[in-house]
């Protein structure tokens, strides 16, 4: 098993933190029980953000090579920011339009310029083994808010977290630690 991997970003949902076309170096040594609020994570969205069906191993390997080379984005791997961890109450929004965690407004300097923290109202309690994830470019992000009415209510299983992006490897002009 690899302890690091590379993932291709195919959407604008995490701008300005990561951009479409970025290749992220992801450390895969994260303990799902030790996720922190504000942390970026790459996760397997099958069963929540993507259909649960699995491809044969050879197809998975070919798709992974295509993703590493930047020929295609993954259809079931996503990058988002952890907003709520087990035991948290996450809600939108206070009178200032800010997302609240346990009644405290979040400071979100990473939001896409001009985006509001959320146009969707929600009030969720994060159970054990789950996390509440949002994109930084909230106006275009498909994230936990988008799945409020679905089974699981937008909460992602913590054991589906693959790892933490630690750096942008490509393109060369954007190579930076995250």
From TrEMBL:
GO terms for biological process: signal peptide processing. One of its GO terms (molecular function) is signal peptidase activity. Signal peptide: none annotated. It is an enzyme of class 3 (hydrolase). It comes from the Bacteria. Residues 3-170 form the Peptidase S26 domain. The active site is at 13, 80. It is a single-pass type II membrane protein. One of its GO terms (cellular component) is plasma membrane. Its EC number is 3.4.21.89. NCBIfam families: sigpep_I_bact. PANTHER family: CHLOROPLAST PROCESSING PEPTIDASE (PTHR43390:SF1), SIGNAL PEPTIDASE I (PTHR43390). This is Signal peptidase I. It comes from Kocuria soli.
């Amino acid at each position: 098993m690899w302890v690091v991997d590379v993932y291709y970003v195919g959407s604008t949902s995490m701008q300005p933190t990561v951009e479409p076309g970025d290749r992220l170096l992801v450390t895969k040594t994260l303990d799902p029980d030790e996720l922190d609020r504000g942390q970026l994570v790459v996760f397997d969205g099958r069963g929540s953000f993507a259909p649960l069906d699995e491809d044969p191993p050879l197809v998975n390997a070919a798709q992974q090579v295509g993703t590493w080379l930047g020929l295609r984005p993954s259809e079931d791997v996503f990058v988002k920011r952890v907003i709520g961890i087990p035991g948290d109450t996450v809600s939108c929004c206070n009178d200032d339009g800010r997302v609240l965690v346990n009644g405290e407004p979040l400071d979100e300097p990473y939001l896409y310029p001009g985006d509001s923290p959320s146009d969707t109202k929600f009030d969720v309690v994060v159970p054990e083994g789950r996390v509440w994830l949002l994109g930084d470019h909230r106006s275009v992000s498909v994230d936990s808010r988008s799945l409020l009415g679905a089974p699981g209510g937008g909460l992602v299983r913590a054991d589906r977290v693959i790892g933490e992006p630690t750096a942008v490897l490509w393109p060369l002009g954007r190579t930076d630690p995250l």
